[in-house]
Write a structure and sequence with these properties.
alpha/beta; three-stranded antiparallel beta sheet; 19 helices; 10 strands
């Protein structure tokens, strides 16, 4: 007999209905590039449930509590990704050594109430608790009270159990692993009670958070990392407004490495520790965030970039049929039309599709610098260079950001490095900005920047 997975087919119209259902259930927007993945996951769900056809599965999704459970299972399987303790180690180092001690010294309530939104199976929430124990240096047995929420009850059950494979601990220093984890016979590790007592887990859908009465301030920090990149800009904006209301004055919001509040909210102040950026809610009576300059794009009365252009019409940029590059090229067109918020949102989608696409990070840097947000733009330019060290335009963007931040000496060193680099093999962006640019033209431009 043919397995249900093999014989099941999903008509395009039903696939679109399923895509809309996923967004209504979770806020997650699935691009056309994700439809094959959606189809594969749905076929797998149908096979496990013994449902032979797509209409039958759609009917099952509408069946009361069973349907609600299946909708959560479907969304969770679509979004499941790798997670581990101290993911982005430098963030937790900054939280441990500077951010948390600073909040405790500034008179925040102790234990500090912290919310990890979209906590999956709990690694991030426990990581926050471990960093807090390390950062309090023994002065506080209960430095924080962490609340982890996720929409899937199975994830919450796993988080409460607190048992993880050794691979999930790979970023932890040996001493931290020995202090806060108990090894088990099967190569797995259990979080110690000293950490577990600082963390509570609760099933909660962020989309439901939008429809409840406006909350009062109750958190010193909110972690919502790599969750909102899947949402529409309007959904993200509404969530960020709620986060702002939830935070104490002076509280902080942590987003994922590719996420930004540019075009979303001006209510927070961007701050930096080492290579980590985060957002702080201003204290009552403090000056509001300064307005930023409008970006300079074609049609705004200023040239898009001061790079010299070829006299003859430039050739079309290198074609790339990858889903991420299609999104980046779309973002560039949106920016040229003056639709800056849509351009940033599309860059976020590109990063979500392919986190290794340097053009997505580069274009994000370019857009942010146009808004005068040089520190944040520098972060994305550096991320583009991590993905392609020969990406000379990202290096130029970093130099421009440093200059805009007043770090003229460091900017000059960058320009000199670029001058050396363009004598060799460099990468140009697969965007219109890179079309028709020769090494000689780049050299002339860099020399003009050094002469300033």
């Amino acid at each position: 007999m043919t397995p249900a997975r093999a014989r099941a087919s999903i008509p395009p119209e039903l696939l679109n209905l399923l895509r809309n259902l996923v967004e209504a259930e979770s806020g997650v927007v699935l691009s056309d590039a994700k439809l094959p993945h959606l189809s594969a996951v749905v076929r797998g769900r149908m096979a496990s449930l013994g449902i032979p056809d797509a209409p039958g599965y759609m009917e099952f999704l509408s069946e009361g509590e069973r349907g609600a459970t299946e909708r959560r299972d479907l969304v969770s399987e679509l979004l499941v990704g790798e997670t581990c303790f101290f993911r982005t180690p430098v963030l937790f180092q900054a939280f441990e050594k500077a951010i948390l001690p600073g909040m405790l010294e500034q008179g925040f309530v102790s234990p500090l109430p912290i919310w990890c939104a979209g906590c999956a199976t709990g690694e991030e929430a426990y990581s926050v608790a471990i960093a807090a124990l390390e950062g309090s240096r023994g002065r506080h047995a209960f430095p924080v009270r962490v609340r982890g929420t996720d929409l899937h009850p199975r994830f919450i059950d796993a988080a409460r159990e607190g048992i993880y494979p050794g691979q999930a601990l790979r970023y932890l220093p040996g001493r931290v692993r020995e202090t806060y984890f108990t090894p088990m016979a099967n190569g797995r590790y259990r979080v110690t009670d000293a950490v577990r007592r600082l963390v509570d887990f609760e099933e909660r859908n962020l989309i439901d958070f939008l429809s409840v009465p406006l909350p009062s301030a109750q958190y010193a920090a909110i972690f919502c990392r790599n969750v909102m990149i899947y949402f529409r800009s309007d959904t993200t904006r509404r969530l960020v407004e709620r986060f702002h209301e939830c935070l104490f004055d002076g509280g902080v919001l942590f987003l994922g490495h590719s996420e930004t509040l540019w075009g979303i909210s001006e209510a927070f102040r961007l701050e930096q520790r080492e290579k980590i950026f985060y957002y702080r809610k201003s204290r009552a009576g403090s000056a509001p965030p300064r307005p930023v300059a409008e970006p300079r794009f074609p049609g705004s009365g200023a040239p898009r970039r001061e790079v010299p252009r070829a006299e003859s019409p430039p050739p079309s940029p290198v074609s790339d049929s990858s889903p991420a590059m299609k999104l980046v090229l779309s973002a560039e067109r949106l920016a040229d039309e003056g639709r800056f918020e849509d351009a940033v949102a599309t860059c976020r989608q590109a990063v979500a599709v392919d986190s290794e696409c340097p053009e997505a990070e580069y274009l994000m840097a370019f857009l942010l610098r146009g808004r005068g947000r040089h520190a944040e733009a520098l972060y994305h330019a550096e991320r583009a260079l991590e993905r392609d060290p020969r990406f000379v335009f990202a290096e130029m963007e970093a130099a421009e950001c440093l200059n805009g931040m007043g770090n003229t000496g460091e900017a000059a060193l960058r320009w000199k490095g670029i001058l050396r680099a363009i004598e060799g093999n460099v990468s140009l962006p697969r965007l219109s900005v890179g079309a028709g640019i020769s090494p000689q033209m780049l050299r002339q431009y860099v020399l003009s920047r050094l002469a300033r």
